[in-house]
Amino acid sequence: MLVAALLAGCAEFPDSGPRDWREKPELDVQAGPQPQVPGEPQGPRPGQPGPNPSGPPAAPEGCVDPDPQVIATCLESVTAIAVLPGGVAALVAERSTGRVLRVEQGVEPVEIARLPADPTAADGGVTGLVLSPSYHEDELIYAYVTTATDNQVMRIAPGGDPPKVVLAGIPRGISGNGGALTTDANGALLVATGDAGVPTAADDPASLAGKVLRIDPFGAAARDNPDPTSRVVAGGLHNPGGLCVDPVEGTTWVTDRTGQRDSLYRVQPGKPLGAPSWTWPDRPGVAGCAAVPGLVAVSLTFGASLYVLRPGPDGMFTGKPEPTLKNAYGRLHAAALGPDGLLWLGTVNKIGGAPVSSDDRVIRIQPPSAGGGGVD
């Protein structure tokens, strides 16, 4: 369904080295189709295109936002999202407060946990959130958290018990504290860690900094890792913002920021990251990502947009990647794909942006197609 929404590509980029972002002609961004809210009798089915509205939605007043794609308002900056089964609601994390909230359209957010995040940590806070691979049975949630001493993976259990540390000792530094979480098809947790401001740590196999880790629910190395004695499956990251897995093809992607460029890497466990699959020399602030066959969507924080790429066979990109949703919601960070095919995004306008009265917000949209100026 999602692949059918993509436009036919006209150019290909071999995956043999970095790809540079180039300035594209400025195009008007149209408001995206309104996703169907479960329980409403009319409108398109979830995951299906709907009609474009005739114009932009009215401006918000206080915490009331008339945009039907806005799910939650007046939050602190949202840096992680995990969509709950069914796609009606999601769990979202606020970077600086450590709050994890359940959000649903038309319902007041409910705090389900508060994590010991250190708001003074550069690039850090709560930056990763994912449901347990067996969430239907255990209702467990995992979070990536910068504490006063280190970066940690924590587990949140139902019932209000204090969060439990699953993996501690991930270095914390003056920068490079960003991290991200996801799961793979084999039930392992994938963890992207920053280099804590020490670039050489990313290439040190003895350090947990600057790595993609693959662990079991208890924090140990997953048994089927390339090296079953090591949590590390790839190294070379500096300040990752997003980690996503194509649920059909199993391809893993990670975004990363450095002082020279922003990058998107294809992760192959047991192999070096190598050259990035795509680069942004203008450093627009790559953050969360979501992937399905034929599409990788990357939130851009400083670029205030969503960047859409279309990976094709044999490690090539097709079509003309470029930003969409340009300035529609301001600075984007969190990104997650729901089970109904809709894309959830979180904004971070309260961190260096120009917030409106309803920021920061959680948004649910139809996944855009590449090669256009708006959401199709």
SSE order, one letter for each helix or strand: EEEEEEEHEEEEEEEEEEEEEEEEEE
Question: Terminal Cα separation, in Å?
Answer: 14 Å
What is the averaged pLDDT score? 85
User: How are strands sequenced across the largest beta sheet?
Assistant: 1-22-21-20-19
Explained architecture:
By secondary structure, the chain is mostly beta strands. It has a single domain, classed as Neuraminidase (6 Propeller), CATH 2.120.10.30. The chain has one helix and 25 strands. The chain has one helix at 135-138; strands at 12-13, 70-72, 78-83, 89-94, 99-104, 107-114, 126-131, 141-146, 151-156, 164-170, 179-183, 189-193, 211-215, 232-235, 240-245, 252-257, 262-267, 278-280, 286-292, 295-300, 305-311, 317-324, 332-337, 343-347, 362-365. The chain has a five-stranded antiparallel sheet, with no helix packed on it. Strands 2-25-24-23 form a four-stranded antiparallel sheet, with no helix packed on it. The protein has a four-stranded antiparallel sheet with strand order 3-4-5-6, with no helix packed on it. The radius of gyration is 19 Å and the shape is globular. The chain starts with 11 loop residues before the first strand and ends in an 11-residue tail after the last strand. Mean pLDDT is 85; it is low at 1-54 and 370-376.
Spell out the key features of this protein.
376 residues, mainly beta, Neuraminidase, five-stranded antiparallel beta sheet, four-stranded antiparallel beta sheet, 1 helix, globular, disordered N terminus, disordered C terminus
